[in-house]
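input
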Amino acid sequence: MVSIYILARLEIFKDFTDQEIQKVIYCSTEEFYPEDTVILEESKHSKDLYVIVEGRVAVEMKIPTSVDQQKVERISVINAEHLFGELAFIEGTPRSAQIRTIEKVKLLVINEKKAHELFKEDPALGFKMMRNLAIIVCDRLRNINFMWRNILSDIS
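output
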């Protein structure tokens, strides 16, 4: 299983004690995927949270090209020590993008049902996790806002 010391460095576990990280590990599984493997499909229902321990993944979205055709475009890359699946984990909605491995990947997959049960048993831990997820989502939104500002300034 993934080392507590590796996980303690990650933003999702900021301000967690080793004991709290261990509790989250008990709600998780370790998964391995080879290069060029789809881990999550866009629009599918699943609610688990994925922490990249090793490797990189591509975030891909289906882009309509005509009335009945579409292509898949890479919109982002997520590196080791970051996560994906946070929107479905928080709000339970279908996946908004497809995730494909760029290279071999090792993941810590946090089971949504087990984690939310843990949050009921240990509200302080749940607060820390959701606060850290909110910070991560805010940072991503801020980066998207800057990206759009730059795109719009180039057009003007």
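quick obs: DSSP finds five helices and eight strands in the chain.
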